[in-house]
Amino acid sequence: MTFKRNLLTLGILAGAILLGSVPAMAQAKPVAPAQAKQVATKVVYTCPMDPEVVSDKPGRCPKCKMFLEKNEVKPAPKKK
C-alpha cells in the first residue's frame, strides 16, 4: 500500500511540474524569422541553356523549351 501511495504521489508531482512549465514555454518570445533580416530579393526565372531568356513567372524557354529555373536577384545598392 505504501509503495502504491508513493508511486501515485510521485506521478502527481511529476505531472504538476510538467504542467507548471507549459505556461512558461507559451510566454516565450517568438524568434524573428531569418527572412525578415535579409535584404528583399526579386525572383526571376531564367533558362539554364539560354541565360538571356528572363521571365518574372515560371514556364518554358521559348527557344529550347526547357523549364525556366528560379533565381533570386538582390537589388543593386543605392548610391548616395
What does this structure look like?
- By secondary structure, the chain is an alpha+beta fold.
- The chain has one domain (2-73).
- It has helices spanning 2-26, 34-37; strands spanning 42-46, 54-55, 69-73.
- Strands 2-1-3 form a three-stranded antiparallel sheet, with no helix packed on it.
- The longest helix has 25 residues, at 2-26.
- The protein is elongated.
H/E order of the elements?
A: HHEEE
In total, the number of strands is 3
- In which order are the strands of the major sheet placed? 2-1-3
Which of globular, elongated, flat, extended, rod-shaped describes the shape? Answer: elongated
Ends apart, CA distance between termini: 82 Å
Runs in which pLDDT lies below 50 for 5 or more consecutive residues are none
Portion in strands: 15-25%
Overall tally of domains: 1
Q: What characterizes the major β-sheet? A: 3 strands, antiparallel
Question: What share of residues is helical?
Answer: 25-40%
Mean pLDDT: 78
Classify the secondary structure makeup into a structural class: alpha+beta
How large is the count of helical segments?
2
- Any idea what the radius of gyration is? 29 Å
